[in-house]
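Hi all, posting the design record for the shared folder.

TITLE: backbone redesign
STEP: 1 of 1
STRUCTURE INPUT:
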């Protein structure tokens, strides 16, 4: 490359700062020469800009061109975004198998979003054969990076005995991890667990608390199936306490730690 390493690092840092400040055009002006010179990270960023339509008009064909260049050089972000294009059919024919291939390449480089998506695809058989062990393994990796979807999925895997023995305690522990970070479906499932005493103590106040949080955060249909039962037979003061807990801010998350087996 024409520019020396120190200059490249400086230009990339200035571009990142500009992008984060909303100065997308400035960032692109800094990335473009480096991308044309073959720098994978700059190529990946150019592709993402065209994919999102930030600083330029959205152009999925140009996005795919830049992302392929970056992905083929091993850039994890480029690989993940190229996988998105194949999954959605943006700029390339829709091909879930190709999407899974590129997600896996990025996942192997510890790209948490790729790990999360690959886990889901293996769980449902989207573009790859159903692989419960793989789904669990990739979800565990993504969960370590704080991906709440992966945590909630792990709760479902242990609850539904998908490739593992059914373990209500592990299911509830993973749902709690995600629930404490605001994941609506995990909040509803944690509430249901407290309602039935599955994996956690039977506690109607806590059940109502988490069900109301889940409902408020977008899991209304899931929570609705349990809210009536949660309120049935509760004392008014207990209902008020559950509502108070649901309205209080969640404590700051300290990050995800895998539950103890």
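Okay, here is what came back for every position:
SEQUENCE:
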């Amino acid at each position: 490359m024409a520019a020396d390493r120190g200059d490249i690092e400086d230009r990339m840092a200035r571009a990142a700062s500009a992008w984060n400040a909303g100065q997308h055009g400035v960032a692109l002006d800094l990335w473009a020469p480096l991308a044309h010179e073959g720098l994978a990270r700059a190529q990946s960023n150019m592709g993402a800009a065209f994919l999102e339509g930030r600083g330029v008009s959205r152009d999925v064909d140009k996005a795919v061109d830049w992302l392929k260049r970056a992905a083929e050089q091993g850039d994890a972000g480029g690989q993940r975004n190229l996988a998105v294009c194949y999954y959605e059919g943006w700029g390339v024919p829709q091909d879930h198998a190709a999407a899974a291939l590129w997600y896996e390449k990025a996942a192997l480089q510890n790209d948490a979003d790729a790990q999360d998506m690959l886990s889901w695809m293996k769980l449902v058989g989207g573009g790859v054969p159903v692989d419960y062990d793989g789904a669990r393994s990739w979800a565990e990796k993504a969960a370590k990076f704080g991906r709440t979807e992966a945590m909630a999925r792990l709760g479902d895997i242990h609850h539904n005995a998908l490739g593992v023995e059914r373990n209500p305690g592990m299911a509830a522990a993973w749902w709690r991890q995600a629930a404490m970070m605001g994941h609506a479906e995990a909040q509803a499932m944690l509430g249901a667990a407290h309602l039935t005493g599955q994996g956690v103590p039977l506690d109607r106040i806590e059940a109502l608390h988490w069900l109301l949080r889940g409902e408020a955060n977008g899991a209304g249909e899931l929570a609705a199936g349990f809210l009536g039962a949660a309120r049935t037979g509760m004392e008014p003061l207990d209902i008020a306490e559950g509502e108070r807990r649901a309205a209080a801010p969640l404590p700051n998350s300290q990050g995800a730690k895998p539950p103890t087996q």
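COMMENT: The mean pLDDT is 94.
Let me know if anyone wants the other runs.
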